């Protein structure tokens, strides 16, 4: 399976937290040749099982993305929107969005919000309006309705040879890498559960339910991590192009030593150069697996990324491909 081709297919179906069904359907079709059984649980998690006689290994990538929801109709056809997941309102003005219906629009700041006089942390989603081209409230109500969801409307671009610049590398790059890993696992002693989780951006909700029902012997997440190679970046030493990272700590979890050892051994066996990750802020589905039931040894493979939660996130394609190779070896290595 080709990483970049897979990513582009997933990007076309990008779906915000709570509305992941279109994305899940694309992943189901791509995963079907590489697993024995696929099911959707009551929360919407897509669970792809590759049966083995050994211990249960859960590999999780969240398939939800951040987005927007129409909350109120304003005068002259403009819309108020609320966030679905984490946004920085100060950075949203001038950004394009699209609705599943095909309606498109542009986010902009209210004049009275006086963005120029505020610090970044002082801006709010209520300072933002959405212009969908309607000339009246009546026309706008014919185009969308309260509760409709939208996502960033930008294409994936290859730049500087190895770099991918696109919305939703977080976390569709990880979903693509996990699918690629599935395609590289012919057989394993482990009983494998490749899980594409929902509502991670709202609090790791999907992974909590999936981990409880699967009850794995070990859990491994894959997600983006903030690269520290930008000038002034408040992050650790992880850099783009340095290979996938094995998480040691973030603000929600200290990864299990057993999981860290498993990933490092897998990387060495696969010939994958990896980085050690200490993330200063943020968390992943790792935490949800770690605290499930009586506790599960859990770890995480991270793809280094810049400008996370923006329409122009940036990763190294090679890092993502190597993350897939690392995960495939981890899946094949007996627990």
Structure characteristics:
8 helices; 27% strand; alpha+beta; six-stranded antiparallel β-barrel; eight-stranded mixed sheet; 335 residues
Topology:
Blueprint: H1 3-12, H2 21-31, E1 37-40, E2 46-50, E3 56-62, E4 67-73, E5 79-84, E6 96-98, E7 104-109, E8 128-131, H3 137-143, E9 149-152, E10 157-159, E11 163-166, H4 169-183, E12 191-197, H5 205-214, E13 218-226, E14 245-249, H6 257-270, E15 275-278, H7 285-290, E16 298-305, E17 313-316, H8 317-332
Parallel strand pairs: 3-12, 3-13, 13-16, 14-15
Antiparallel strand pairs: 1-2, 2-12, 4-5, 4-9, 5-8, 6-7, 6-9, 7-8, 10-11, 11-17, 14-16
Helix pairs in contact: 1-4, 4-8, 6-8
Can you give a write-up of this model?
- With 335 residues, the protein is an alpha+beta fold.
- Helices cover 27% and strands 27% of the residues.
- The chain has an eight-stranded mixed β-sheet, sandwiched between helices. Strands 4-5-8-7-6-9 form a six-stranded antiparallel beta barrel. A three-stranded antiparallel β-sheet has the order 10-11-17.
- Helix 6 links the parallel strand 14 and strand 15.
- The mean pLDDT is 96.
């Amino acid at each position: 399976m080709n990483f970049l081709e897979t990513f582009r297919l997933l990007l076309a179906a990008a779906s915000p937290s709570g509305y992941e069904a279109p994305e899940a359907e694309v992943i189901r079709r791509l995963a079907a040749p590489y697993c024995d059984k696929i099911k959707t649980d009551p929360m919407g998690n897509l669970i792809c099982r590759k049966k083995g006689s050994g211990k249960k290994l859960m590999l999780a990538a969240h398939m939800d993305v951040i987005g927007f929801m129409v909350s109120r109709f304003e005068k002259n056809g403009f819309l108020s929107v609320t966030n679905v997941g984490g946004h920085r309102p100060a950075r949203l003005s001038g950004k394009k969005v699209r609705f599943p219906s095909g309606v498109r629009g542009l986010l902009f700041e209210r004049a009275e919000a006086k963005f120029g006089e505020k610090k970044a942390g002082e801006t709010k989603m209520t300072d933002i309006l959405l212009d969908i081209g309607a000339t009246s409230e009546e026309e706008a109500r014919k185009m969308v309705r309260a509760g409709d969801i939208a996502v960033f409307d930008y294409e994936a671009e290859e730049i500087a040879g190895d770099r991918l610049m696109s919305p939703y590398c977080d976390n569709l790059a990880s979903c693509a890498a996990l699918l690629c890993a599935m395609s590289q696992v012919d057989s394993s002693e482990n009983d494998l559960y490749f899980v594409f989780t929902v509502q991670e951006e709202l609090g790791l909700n999907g992974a909590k339910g999936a981990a409880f029902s699967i009850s794995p012997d070990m859990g491994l997440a894959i997600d983006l991590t903030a690269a520290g190679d930008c000038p002034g970046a408040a992050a650790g030493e992880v850099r783009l192009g340095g290979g996938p990272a094995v998480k040691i700590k973030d603000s929600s979890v200290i990864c299990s030593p057993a999981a860290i050892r498993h990933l490092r051994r897998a990387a060495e066996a696969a010939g994958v150069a990896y980085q050690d990750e200490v993330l200063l802020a943020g968390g992943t589905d790792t935490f949800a697996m770690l605290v499930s039931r009586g506790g599960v040894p859990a770890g995480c493979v991270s793809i280094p990324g810049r400008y996370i939660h923006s329409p122009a996130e940036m990763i190294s394609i090679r890092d993502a491909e190597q993350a897939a190779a690392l995960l495939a070896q981890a899946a094949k290595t007996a627990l």
